[in-house]
Amino acid sequence: MFRTxxxxxxxxxxLLVVLAALPPFLGIYYGNLVTRLMILGIFAMSLDLLIxxxxxxxxxxxxxxxxxxxxxxxxxMDTETASxxxxxxxxxxxxxxxxxxxxxxxxxxxxxxxxxxxxxxxQMLFYFFNENTALGxxxxxxxxxxxxxxxxxxxxxxxxDHHTFYYVVLVSLILSYLGLRRLLNAPFGQVIQGIRTxxxxxxxxxxxxxxxxxxxxxxAGTLAGFAGFLEAMHTSIxxxxxxxxxxxxxxxxxxxxxxxxxLHGPVLGAFAFGFLHDWLQDVTQHPTLYMGIFVIAxxxxxxxxxxxxxxxxxxxxxxxxxxxxxxxx
Amino acid sequence: xxxxxxxIQLLNSVQYGFLxxxxxxxxxxxxxxxxxxxxxxxxxxxxxxYIVWWLFGFTESLTLSILLGVPLIMLLGLAIERLAIAHLxxxxxxxxxxxxxGMILVLNECQKIFWGTDFYSVPVxxxxxxxIPLTENQxxxxxxxxxxxxxxxxxxxxxxxxxxxxxGMTIRAGASNREMVQALGVNINWVFAVVxxxGAGLAGFAGMIGAPVxxxxxxxxxxxxxxxxxxxVIGGIGSIKGAFIGAMLxxxxxxxxxxxxxxxxxxxxxxxxxVILLWRPQGLFGQSAH
Lengths: 329, 290
Hints:
By secondary structure, chain A is mainly α.
């Protein structure tokens, strides 16, 4: 079963209350930053489903994130307004289809082959958009309007408003978390966690493991697509960089930094990573250099991430040698 | 496309394929023997190109710059292996990907700090600057032929090193069973350091010898890295023979893709990979997946 301790639950609820109460104090810049970090949190959670719970290390996860944004951009290209009731399903549908195709090839392989094949497929999509001049080439495209939630003249939620959008993203984050949690405790979730622990045994128990991996890949891809949809709506721009391998590497980093296989960890990771990057941009001319050093340091010294930090500290206090942390707890 | 332009494109494919082979063979050796995915491999290629440009400023000679540059790159590789990679042998691939990803960020930024973001070019040596006439108005540069010949010699040298020498024997043994080699009294850490440094040297050399035909620019390492990954996956991870065939296939797909379907040339490469993997998921010469 996927369970979290009472203390963890209380801390998470506390953090949510803080997030819900923050907007009036944030101002435009930090309001936008926190909105973006919540979106990246959803994106990172979707990758955690693959890396932390299914044992599939995908190095091309940004492909789905960016693809969904591009579909939104294409659908909004010639219209002033569009209803979210068909735009969102269209974005998610295309992303799910793409995850089906890419996943169908990729789950045939494992280990390092899986890493490299997902990377290569993501690069294929990257070049497709990078070289497609009709879609803005390497500059990407602007999305001039957000889809609306209006039914007729009645508009319950105005997405153009910053505060409203903040809460829409917050609710999306909570629902994604609860949905994934529910999924992990369902029979399906038990099977994919079995695959991560020992695929051969799970297959011996009579589960068609490849099919389960494929479904997990599609769910993760579609959720990444949902995050990409929110991101494209939020920033009003989509470019090939959103699908590039630097983005895939960053989200992987976010998951590790937060703690793989913890679900809430990647969200914490997104916040830690995002604020660090924001701070580095202020204090140095070479944020990427320090970001790289930070990534290396996390891998070498903090393999269990932020979510594993309390346990690491407790172990250190008891003066036992730390575990190698090479595999998820 | 008439026969002469076909021939020119074919020669270009082979020359590009050879360069790719130098980079990809290092990548596949490091994985096959050490079990390490090294994303920073492309950075060695880029540093090779920049170092040769930088040294050329002092020496005014490409040969001398390369002779001085290769040891520098091998030293850089050795330092990285000892300081960071050596801590990762027992760890999951995930952490190797991340650590070397972090290293790319650091190395790319160092490149910008040392040499800026401008494009540079390295002149072709005087002796090799001529062209071979093919028809009355089509010529082929001598330097490109020279690259192919040098790479061919290096490939042959690598074959001899790995198949015929004692070091090569140890390397092959290490690739098939690491524990056994250690039990026989070989210091496997030393072998790893040599292999990693050799791989770095090969990638750096490819960047150096290729610098006069492809200019020297930021991000050149990232591009070659991803393509080399495709080569390695097609050929089968850990197989030098596979890397060679894969590099030639990708050279052909890329060069002819640019001529025949210019809008989607880069996709042609990945489409080739998808087709091959559909047929053989472990690559052309791959063992069962690790």
